[in-house]
Amino acid sequence: MSNAQAPADRPSIITFGDGNSEHLSRLATSTPKPAFSGAWTTVELQPDVFVPQRFTVGVVVQSPGDRIHFKLLDDFKKFECLYHDQFPQKSVRELLAYAEEALRHAVQVKTAIPEIVFDTHCLTLALPSYTSGDDRESTVERLFQEIVVMAPSAKRKANEFEFIDTPTARQLVNQKLKEIAKMDFEKIVPSEGQGLLIDYEGVKHFLDLNILTAGACGSVTSAAYKSAQTVEINLLKSSRDLTTYSRVNKMDNIGLFLLLPQADLMEPKEYKKIEETIEEHEWKLERDGFRVVSLASAADLAKDIYDWAQPTIS
């Protein structure tokens, strides 16, 4: 019997006769990219300027080149339990109101996260980090629930809410509009696609609008979100594209049709913020000649669109 020891185990090396790994390339699949990716940060609050204790009261996310999206704390019951009678509720509410105003301004002017600065030492943004998710809305909600420990526990009613994005909102409204407009449908909605590609001075541009007649242009846009910031971003994008199209084609009849969320599936505070955001932009847009309609029913919205568009059909 041989006393020679078996050679030590070595890593196996698999080689292919011709060194050609082309068949592996065919089998390989690319890693799916997240629908949303970018930076995120927290909003830090120091309730007492003389006490160096900070609390996370909000989150902000942003994909490269896009507007920020944020959510702030609006309930202070846990602070009251912590501080009892010493909690400066009035001043904290004023600070959070200022933070929301500053962040909303950042949304409108597309400020990058590192460039956002609060004019008070009681509010700061943490250093941004990378994040990703299905979309901005769900990413903000997830981070807020994970990070903002001073937020109240989510109620079941809020968890039952499902947002509707703009492509889905358009599909819902188009289904009802087909029933109402019948043969006129194709004269109002030129295609089932999302948006139009126009040629201006030899350069093609994409504009996100889906209603077009001989004398009017319009857009169905979703406001069926829990976040007022998402609604505001949608409003800004849709109104910008409608304004551009109307100026290029010299149209005075412009319509913006918003599909609202179901109020009974949301927290009253969240729904009120969405209403206030829409009302603020509605007033401004109407001064620019827009017709703005916001309804929670796709059927009611479709009827209003048909009544508005019918006189402009050639």
What does this structure look like?
Mean pLDDT is 83; it is low at 1-17 and 23-31. The N and C termini lie far apart (101 Å). The longest helix has 21 residues, at 89-109. The chain is built from ten helices and eleven strands. α6 (166-181) crosses α10 and α8 (228-248) runs parallel beside α9. The strands form three sheets. Strands 1, 2, 3, 4 and 5 form a five-stranded antiparallel sheet that branches. It has a four-stranded mixed sheet with strand order 8-9-10-11, sandwiched between helices. A two-stranded antiparallel sheet has the order 6-7. The protein is 39% helix and 20% strand. It has 314 residues and is an alpha+beta fold.
Secondary structure layout plus pairing:
Elements (H helix, E strand, L loop, with lengths): L21 H6 L8 E10 L9 E8 L6 E4 L4 H7 L5 H21 L13 E3 L3 E5 L2 H12 L8 H4 L6 H16 L3 H4 L7 E5 L2 E5 L3 E2 L3 E7 L5 H21 L4 E7 L8 H20 L2 E6 L2 H12 L5
Parallel strand pairs: 9-10, 10-11
Antiparallel strand pairs: 1-2, 1-4, 1-5, 2-3, 6-7, 8-9
Helix pairs in contact: 6-10, 8-9
Q: Label the overall shape.
A: elongated
Strand content: 15-25%
What is the mean predicted local confidence, pLDDT?
83
Show unreliable segments: 1-17, 23-31
Structural class: alpha+beta
SS summary, helix count: 10
The H-and-E topology, N to C, reads as HEEEHHEEHHHHEEEEHEHEH
Task: Please describe the structure with a list of short key phrases separated by commas or semicolons.
314 residues; elongated; alpha+beta; 10 helices; five-stranded antiparallel sheet; four-stranded mixed sheet
